């Protein structure tokens, strides 16, 4: 019944139906579950109960004659004072010039808008003469377009709820409704669209938050189970004695977090299923060592290993680092686009006959000509930088190899269990002892001259500096213009004693590699750059990071940039140049100076920016929930995850009749699940 066309609803003709289609509403069900994105509350409360900077409705008398001022083309500002009880509140209305004729001193008015408690001022978005007598003090606000007005959508919605609301079937088992005191699905839909009180709306939202999280987590758990069943791999029987001997030969002791992550990876390697694990940890936490020991484990079991990284210079550094670490124990080869001719042919031959134990490279590793003898283990560094297809191609090169993804972007637990619900996650949340902490300072723009002096001093003392340009939203062109201008300025300031380099996103990969090589070799002392240096190269001599207009960057991005320094023996510094206007910007700068813990910063960043912006919209792969918010509703997310694991583990979807509607709902997604599997 609910899958019928939206035209079945009284009052919806062909034209309105086509407009609703533009909003993604095709069926009656689509309409009923097209929830408001916010609610306007017209409930009048005493001034003492209002919250600063939140929407409020006030009722009172006009105390001063409204004053009207024009600015710009057809833009106006109307202000008056209204008496609310014993308080005088200033009311500001933009582009409501017509209201001046309607309002006289002594008139009773009701106004709604953002309330500034400190200035006793309300910026009104709604106003009406007379008392607040709205029958619906809470009004839903829907996402609409120019063809569908909110009033029209509300009217159609009311009709749909009246006609078809009772047809909405329950999907949650009765035990869960009782356990969490959740309203029935049909009742919750009604209260989402036409809430009679804030309490009923709160319970309806709570119900759909849990339902969305549970369905999503069940999908993830099924995907993980299906992945494991469909991807029986090879059990790698590594030589524990050789591994222990190697770990003991390292010039440092592994941290507890490294030991824990290594144990999780080795356990996966022994399992008959293919590993699909994410290893995450802060810059400098020692992920590479854990990955190296794991690769060595694969080699001791008679397999080859591969390490894929985003850039040539990073591949070169990893290969050099692994050779230093393993010495004669392993044969390590480097394969990038620059390796050509005889050397390339030799590597291909040695890979195919099994002479090479570990191959390090860029996406060159996934080219068709590269054939492994017996690939058993793959490490993919900075995994979000590679597309799904690239990762899949590399996986398919081996005999169902184990896959370990690595990222230096610490991901909050909330996000990790949601974004990577189909992967196992290991976290190295502890830094090696003795590592010098990067000292971070926030300075205002007027101190730029002093900062330039500090850069000079650092370089003269033998260090090197990164200078990051301001970020212009949505404009690569302006970003580059900024970088070029700053580069020219600094070149003038430091000429002729200090060499300044420039890097930005429009340079070719070869040009970027060349500049990074020159910086790495200290032929460039100051590197001016846009954020393209965020993930990348180890320059142990770089000891200073200066970020212009730092308040324009998110916390995680600032932390990643800061992680470019502090990789050598020198004491390193990070200077945030910023004059933030809002409280959020000031808060970000303050947190950056207080901690270098990437996990704490990522939690704060998630609270401030929300999950969609965390990896960048295109990268995130996060589900778009209609009601649930994984940051604010993280307790419900944890509960749903626990419940989903229990349901799958006990096979209740198949064995328990009360789970049938939920199973049917999930069944519709099974095709998508199949597509997600390799």
TrEMBL record:
SUPFAM superfamilies referenced in this protein's UniProt entry, alphabetically: Nucleic acid-binding proteins (SSF50249), P-loop containing nucleoside triphosphate hydrolases (SSF52540)
Keywords recorded for this protein, A-Z: ATP-binding, DNA damage, DNA recombination, DNA repair, DNA-binding, Helicase, Hydrolase, Isomerase, Nucleotide-binding
Entry EC no(s): 5.6.2.4
Signal sequence interval, chain numbering: none
PROSITE patterns: HELICASE_ATP_BIND_1 (PS51192), HELICASE_CTER (PS51194)
Reaction it catalyzes: ATP + H2O = ADP + phosphate + H(+); Couples ATP hydrolysis with the unwinding of duplex DNA by translocating in the 3'-5' direction
GO biological process: DNA recombination; DNA repair
Occurrences of domain Helicase C-terminal (ranges): 447-607
Gene Ontology molecular function: 3'-5' DNA helicase activity; ATP binding; DNA binding; hydrolase activity
NADP recorded as keyword: no
Residue ranges occupied by any Helicase ATP-binding domain in the UniProt entry: 268-428
General function of this protein: Plays a critical role in recombination and DNA repair. Helps process Holliday junction intermediates to mature products by catalyzing branch migration. Has replication fork regression activity, unwinds stalled or blocked replication forks to make a HJ that can be resolved. Has a DNA unwinding activity characteristic of a DNA helicase with 3'-5' polarity.
NCBIfam families per the UniProt record, alphabetical: PRK10917.1-3, PRK10917.2-2, recG
Family membership noted in the UniProt record: Belongs to the helicase family. RecG subfamily.
Protein name as annotated: ATP-dependent DNA helicase RecG
Provenance organism: Salimicrobium jeotgali
Lineage: Bacteria, Bacillati, Bacillota, Bacilli, Bacillales
């Amino acid at each position: 019944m609910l899958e019928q066309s939206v035209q079945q609803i009284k009052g919806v003709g062909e034209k309105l139906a086509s407009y609703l289609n533009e909003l993604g509403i095709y069926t009656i069900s689509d309409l009923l579950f097209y929830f408001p994105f916010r609610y306007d509350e017209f409930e009048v409360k005493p001034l003492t109960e209002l919250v600063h900077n939140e929407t409020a409705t006030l009722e009172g008398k006009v105390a001063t004659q409204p004053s009207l001022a024009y600015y710009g083309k057809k833009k106006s500002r109307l202000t008056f004072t209204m008496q609310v009880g014993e308080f005088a509140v200033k009311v500001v209305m933009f582009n409501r010039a017509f209201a001046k004729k309607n309002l006289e001193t002594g008139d009773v008015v009701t106004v709604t808008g953002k309330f500034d408690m400190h200035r006793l001022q309300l910026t009104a978005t709604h106003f009406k003469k007379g008392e607040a007598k709205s029958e619906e003090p809470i009004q839903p606000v829907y996402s609409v377009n120019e063809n569908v007005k909110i009033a029209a959508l509300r009217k159609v919605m009311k009709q749909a709820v009246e006609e078809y609301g009772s047809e909405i079937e329950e999907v949650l088992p009765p035990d869960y409704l009782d356990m969490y005191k959740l309203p029935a699905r049909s009742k919750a839909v009604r209260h989402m669209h036409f809430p009679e009180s804030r309490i009923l709306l709160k319970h309806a939202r709570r119900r759909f938050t849990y339902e969305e999280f549970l369905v999503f987590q069940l999908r993830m758990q099924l995907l993980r189970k299906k992945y494991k069943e469909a991807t029986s791999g090879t059990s790698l029987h590594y030589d524990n004695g050789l591994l222990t001997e190697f770990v003991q030969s390292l010039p440092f002791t592994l941290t507890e977090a490294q030991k824990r992550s290594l144990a999780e990876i080795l356990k996966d390697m022994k399992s008959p299923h293919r590993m699909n694990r994410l290893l995450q940890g802060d810059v400098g936490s020692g992920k590479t060592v854990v990955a190296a020991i794991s690769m060595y484990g694969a080699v001791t079991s008679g397999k080859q290993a591969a390490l894929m990284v985003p850039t040539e210079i990073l591949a070169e550094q990893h290969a050099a680092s692994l050779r230093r670490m393993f010495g004669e124990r392993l044969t390590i080869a480097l394969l990038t686009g620059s390796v050509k001719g005889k050397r390339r042919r030799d590597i291909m031959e040695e890979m195919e006959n099994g002479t090479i134990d570990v191959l390090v490279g860029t996406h060159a590793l996934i080219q068709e000509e590269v054939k492994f003898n017996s690939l058993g283990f793959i490490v993919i560094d900075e995994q979000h930088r590679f597309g799904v297809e690239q990762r899949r191609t590399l996986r398919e090169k081996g005999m169902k190899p184990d896959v370990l993804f690595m990222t230096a972007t610490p991901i909050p637990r909330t996000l990790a269990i949601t974004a990577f619900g189909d992967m196992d996650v290991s976290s190295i949340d502890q830094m090696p002892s003795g590592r010098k902490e990067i000292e971070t300072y926030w300075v205002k723009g007027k101190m730029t001259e002093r900062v330039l002096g500090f850069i000079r001093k650092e370089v003269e003392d033998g260090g090197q500096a990164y200078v990051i340009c301001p970020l212009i939203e949505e404009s690569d062109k302006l970003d580059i213009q900024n970088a070029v201008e700053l580069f020219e300025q600094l070149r003038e300031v430091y000429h002729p004693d200090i060499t300044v380099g420039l890097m930005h996103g429009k340079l070719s990969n070869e040009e970027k590699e060349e500049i990074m090589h020159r910086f790495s070799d200290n032929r460039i002392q100051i590197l001016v750059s846009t954020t393209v240096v965020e993930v990348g190269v180890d320059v142990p001599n770089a000891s200073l990071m200066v970020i212009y207009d730092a308040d324009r960057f998110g916390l995680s991005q600032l932390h990643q940039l800061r992680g470019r320094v502090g990789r050598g023996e020198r004491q390193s510094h990070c200077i945030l140049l910023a004059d933030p206007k809002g409280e959020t910007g000031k808060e970000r700068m303050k947190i950056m100076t207080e901690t270098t813990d990437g996990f704490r910063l990522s939690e704060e960043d998630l609270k401030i920016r929300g999950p969609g912006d965390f990896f960048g919209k295109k990268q995130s792969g996060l589900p778009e929930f209609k009601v649930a918010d994984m940051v604010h509703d993280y307790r419900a997310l944890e509960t749903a995850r626990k419940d989903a694991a229990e349901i799958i583990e006990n096979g209740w979807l198949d064995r328990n009749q009360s789970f049938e509607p939920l199973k049917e709902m999930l069944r519709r997604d099974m095709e998508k699940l199949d597509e997600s599997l390799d």
